[in-house]
Write a structure and sequence with these properties.
The chain is of the alpha+beta class. The protein has three helices and nine strands; from the N terminus they run H-E-E-H-H-E-E-E-E-E-E-E. It is globular and about 45 Å long.
């Protein structure tokens, strides 16, 4: 009987410990659309991370909701921390598509129109690093049938995107899909 009580106590303590330790991660899927000349992105974030980042950014308590104000704030945060840029550092304009907010995980959708040669673009992803240096941001980049994964950490926030050169991605006539 005594060991059963200790098991219950230990189980309760481990549950409290698991709740206190949150995993710090975001995940994005980015797909190169050669015909539309764009990079389409679906980004999944935890709503508590986004709320904490907005709280820190605006210096006041903030609870994310599904309305237009929450969406505008989420968009502004993403535009500041998920940046696709040319080699000289000039950022490309993010075109917001929308979001699917829910308590727990929220999906954010946006794209970057690609003009000129997309081969030398770099992605900077600093999402939630102001909250935790343990943050791991993963981006799966799909180009045709090829898929490669970029991992962004506090020590490595910028990566070459690896899109094909303009001549290799000019559409169906190029033979690459």
């Amino acid at each position: 009987m005594k060991s059963l009580r200790w098991s219950v106590v230990l189980l309760g303590l481990s549950a409290m410990s698991a709740e206190a330790h949150r995993f710090h991660a975001s995940f994005a899927e980015a797909e190169h659309d050669a015909e539309r000349r764009s990079l389409e992105v679906a980004l999944r974030v935890e709503d508590h991370d986004l709320e904490d980042a907005l709280r820190l950014r605006h210096g006041r308590e903030y609870e994310l909701t599904a309305g237009p104000v929450g969406e505008r704030m989420a968009r502004a945060y993403v535009e500041e921390h998920f940046i696709l840029a040319r080699p000289g550092g000039q950022p490309l304009e993010l075109e917001w598509v929308g979001w699917d907010w829910s308590r727990g995980s929220t999906w954010l959708y946006f794209e970057y129109p690609l003009s000129g040669d997309p081969g030398d673009l770099h992605l900077t992803n600093t999402l939630f690093l102001e909250l935790s240096r343990e943050q791991v941001n993963t981006v799966n980049v799909r180009v045709g049938k090829a898929l490669h994964t970029l991992t962004f950490l506090a020590r490595s926030t910028r990566h070459h995107l690896g899109l094909p050169q303009a001549s290799a991605s000019s559409g169906p006539a190029s033979g690459r899909r």
